[in-house]
């Protein structure tokens, strides 16, 4: 008999999970337009690929890749809608916004691979140029142009719009709000590709110059690669959690304002990165004075940084400076406290000076009493002796004892000099 699991979770297959998430996205009425344009895109792409085969035009094939890119763009819109519906979980604490970045990065990289394929085929065609049929070349050009512009202007693609704005802000920071609505890179590349195909059609029809089709294909491929490459670099930097270049100036200004707040001593270990498009996360350590209010400083710092950094972590800690302690400090009762251990050094019993038995006394230094000279002995109580200078001190003159040293050594010691008085 097997084990009974009354609360066992049912494991769904990958297809079942995808179906559930697709149903969640389709429940939003705003996603219906994206799904409708996606179906039309598949139909249009199929027709264009058949016309590319019948006309044997490499330029029309390169232009059709822009329609395939529109399909990737629509898929990115659906992913963006799904990310907006999902909430952060314990596993994904920042949510699923990085999935939008990954979708943009994958779309741009795939289109660049297609452009490289077109360039490779164009080089081969320059060696042996086949004949191009212009029967449906102009029709395919206008069909692709109409559908591409209709898709770009009808469907709002937030991820690609943010990437375009970020790239333009990095190149021309001050004119981004003026130039961006008039310089949509996808609209420009579609118009330039359609113009190139029209010139190709006229040259083939008038002069039967088939090589211009290959040149037009190479030009469209280069424009596609040049448009998609900055977007893939930008989204790749977001995936690597780097700080966006167009917000570095704003962050520096806010950090300078935070460092001038009342009670703030230092802002350090700051790190800011992009979680998703339009979502900036960051963390910082703020050192404050010992008498400052932690909650008040935290509120001021958060109010300054939160408008720009949506996910913010601030660690407040007070200035914790300590004075260095003296290792040989005397205690309150020195008679009962033992002397601290000084390791291998030996303390002199009279002067408490560390002495090295193995080394001679240094030159030009006074020898201590009791080391190289006999100590001065005080007379016993009641013994009357000559009192020098009438200081009231009983003093006995000890005979000079030079020991094993020289006269110079004896004259340099204070104890010997006192004994001569």
Automatic annotation (TrEMBL):
It is a multi-pass membrane protein. Keywords: Golgi apparatus, Ion transport, Membrane, Transmembrane, Transmembrane helix, Transport, Zinc, Zinc transport. The chain crosses the membrane at residues 34-51, 63-84, 96-117, 137-155, 162-180, 186-204, 211-231. Has probably no intrinsic transporter activity but together with SLC30A5 forms a functional zinc ion:proton antiporter heterodimer, mediating zinc entry into the lumen of organelles along the secretory pathway. As part of that zinc ion:proton antiporter, contributes to zinc ion homeostasis within the early secretory pathway and regulates the activation and folding of enzymes like alkaline phosphatases and enzymes involved in phosphatidylinositol glycan anchor biosynthesis. GO terms for biological process: zinc ion transport. Heterodimer with SLC30A5; form a functional zinc ion transmembrane transporter. Belongs to the cation diffusion facilitator (CDF) transporter (TC 2.A.4) family. SLC30A subfamily. Pfam families: Cation_efflux. This is Solute carrier family 30 member 6. It is found in: Golgi apparatus, trans-Golgi network membrane. Residues 333-381 are annotated as: Disordered. Residues 35-240 form the Cation efflux protein transmembrane domain. InterPro entries: Cation_efflux, Cation_efflux_TM, Cation_efflux_TMD_sf, CDF_SLC30A. One of its GO terms (molecular function) is monoatomic cation transmembrane transporter activity. GO terms for cellular component: Golgi apparatus; membrane.
């Amino acid at each position: 008999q097997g084990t009974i699991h009354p609360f066992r979770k049912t494991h769904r297959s990958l297809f079942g999970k995808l179906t559930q998430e697709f149903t969640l996205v389709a429940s939003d009425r705003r996603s219906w337009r994206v799904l409708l344009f996606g179906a039309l895109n598949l139909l249009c792409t199929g027709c264009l690929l058949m016309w590319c085969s019948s006309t044997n035009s490499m330029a029309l094939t390169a232009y059709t890749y822009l329609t395939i890119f529109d399909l990737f763009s629509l898929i990115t819109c659906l992913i963006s809608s799904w990310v907006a519906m999902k909430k952060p979980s314990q596993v994904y604490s920042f949510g699923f916004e990085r999935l939008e970045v990954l979708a943009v990065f994958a779309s741009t990289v795939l289109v660049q691979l297609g452009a490289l394929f077109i360039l490779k085929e164009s080089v081969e065609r320059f060696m042996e140029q086949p004949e191009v049929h212009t029967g449906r070349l102009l029709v395919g050009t206008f069909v692709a142009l109409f559908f591409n512009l209709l898709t770009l202007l009808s469907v709002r693609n937030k991820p690609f719009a943010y990437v375009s704005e970020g790239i333009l802000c990095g190149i021309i920071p001050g004119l981004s709000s003026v130039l961006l609505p008039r310089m949509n890179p996808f609209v420009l590349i579609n118009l330039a590709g359609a113009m190139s195909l029209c010139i190709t059609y006229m040259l083939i029809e008038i002069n039967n110059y088939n090589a211009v089709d290959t040149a037009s294909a190479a030009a469209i491929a280069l424009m596609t690669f040049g448009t998609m490459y900055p977007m893939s670099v930008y989204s790749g930097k977001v995936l690597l959690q780097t700080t966006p270049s167009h917000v570095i100036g704003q962050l520096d200004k806010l950090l300078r304002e935070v460092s001038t707040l009342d009670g703030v001593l230092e802002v350090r270990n700051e790190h800011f990165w992009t979680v998703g498009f339009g979502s900036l996360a960051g963390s910082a350590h703020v050192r404050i004075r010992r008498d400052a209010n932690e909650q008040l400083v935290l509120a001021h710092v958060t109010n300054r940084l939160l408008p720009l950094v949506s996910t913010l972590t601030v660690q407040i800690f007070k200035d914790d400076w300590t004075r260095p302690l003296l290792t040989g400090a005397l205690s309150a009762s020195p008679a009962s406290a033992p002397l601290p251990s000084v390791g291998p050094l030996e303390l002199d019993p009279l002067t408490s000076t560390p002495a090295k038995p193995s080394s001679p006394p240094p030159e030009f230094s006074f020898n201590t009493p009791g080391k190289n000279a006999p100590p001065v002995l005080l007379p016993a109580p009641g013994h009357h002796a000559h009192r020098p200078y009438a200081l009231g001190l009983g003093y006995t003159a000890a005979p000079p004892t030079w020991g094993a040293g020289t006269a110079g050594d004896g004259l340099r010691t204070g104890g010997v000099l006192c004994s001569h008085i």
